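Below is how a single chain appears once it has passed through the pipeline. First comes the sequence as given, then the structure the pipeline wrote out for it. We keep one example in the README because the format questions we get most often are answered faster by looking than by reading.
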Amino acid sequence: MNKKGSILIYGLMLGLVIIILALSLAPTGQQVISEAMNQSTSNAIGLNCSNSTISNFDKAACVVTDFSLPYFFGGLIFIAGAIIVGRILL
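Resulting structure:
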């Protein structure tokens, strides 16, 4: 096998590993985000996002926390796709 073929296989494997890693971490990330957005308990400190009387700063923190999960895992999957496409085209 020539050098370009081995690099192509390496790139595909690396991209698939990143995709599998992102998909396997998604449920854990969702659990962490939901615990952070819930009301504070004796075990965890939460943002209490369901309360309508919180300040605007806390509301903004709730929105940023809610958007962080799709952006993080979408970014990981995008990077993996870029690695795969980059290795196929180059």
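Helices lie at 3-37, 56-89.

See the next section for the split statistics.
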